[in-house]
């Protein structure tokens, strides 16, 4: 799915989120959302004046739907949840794209990051996997993921947030989930199922991924977008020697 782009005050706004649709499957084994009318426009007409109508929708879904943010509470009972997580880590954050789309294996290791400066930044890992969104290939398990050494490398350098355009930042066959375990233990949130990273420059953009403030939940869909500075070029940062 291509990212939607608009312009605001001379800057490009790039939408990095999948559209949530009724019945769609985000992750294998989890149900798709159900989107229905709680109050239809036709039924609302009896409540309001002539020519006035409204729609009130209802959605039933698991938290891991579409493009979503994982906070530490997703993995740790004593971690920050959606209501207490610091917005400063996911709002107006200096971003960098790490291009892993040319890696000839699904395991993304430390070498992929090269000498990229990630401290305090939004690190977005472009794998190209989002091109399979909505197909069985996307969720078949043979997807790009971070290795343990890559996670250790990131934790040591303290990025503000890490995002990826794959079905899981972890190898789904590794039930210890080292990426979620390591990053969330360090207070580094994760955004999964991103899209449109190919529309971003290597840097020169600000990421926004604010969640709804829900107490007692660690994960929820977010409308992730980037504000690209005027003059920012398209492309992504390739591995450095």
UniProtKB/TrEMBL annotation:
<dbReference type="Pfam" id="PF04199">
    <property type="entry name" value="Cyclase"/>
</dbReference>
<protein>
    <submittedName>
        <fullName>Kynurenine formamidase</fullName>
    </submittedName>
</protein>
<dbReference type="GO" id="GO:0019441">
    <property type="term" value="P:L-tryptophan catabolic process to kynurenine"/>
</dbReference>
<dbReference type="InterPro" id="IPR007325">
    <property type="entry name" value="KFase/CYL"/>
</dbReference>
<dbReference type="InterPro" id="IPR037175">
    <property type="entry name" value="KFase_sf"/>
</dbReference>
<dbReference type="GO" id="GO:0004061">
    <property type="term" value="F:arylformamidase activity"/>
</dbReference>
């Amino acid at each position: 799915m291509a990212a939607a782009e608009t312009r605001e005050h001379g800057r490009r706004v790039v939408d990095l989120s999948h559209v949530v649709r009724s019945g769609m499957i985000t992750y294998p084994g989890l149900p798709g959302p159900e989107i229905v009318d709680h109050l239809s426009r036709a039924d609302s007409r009896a409540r309001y004046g002539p020519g006035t109508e409204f729609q009130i929708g209802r959605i039933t879904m698991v938290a891991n739907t579409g493009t979503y943010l994982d906070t530490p509470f997703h993995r740790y009972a004593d971690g920050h949840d959606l209501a207490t997580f610091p917005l400063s880590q996911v709002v107006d954050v200096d971003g960098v794209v790490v291009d892993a789309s040319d890696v000839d294996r699904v395991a993304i290791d430390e070498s992929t990051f090269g000498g990229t400066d990630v401290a305090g930044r939004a690190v977005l890992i472009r794998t190209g996997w989002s091109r399979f969104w909505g197909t069985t290939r996307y969720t078949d398990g043979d997807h790009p993921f971070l290795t343990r050494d890559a996670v250790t490398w990131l934790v040591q350098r303290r990025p503000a947030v890490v995002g990826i355009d794959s079905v899981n930042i972890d190898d789904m066959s590794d039930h210890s989930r080292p990426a979620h375990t390591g990053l969330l233990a360090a207070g580094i949130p994760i955004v999964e199922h991103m899209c449109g990273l190919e529309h971003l420059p290597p840097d020169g953009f600000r990421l926004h991924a604010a969640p709804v403030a829900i107490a007692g939940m660690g994960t929820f869909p977010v409308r992730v977008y980037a504000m690209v500075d005027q003059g920012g070029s398209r492309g992504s940062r390739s591995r450095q020697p």
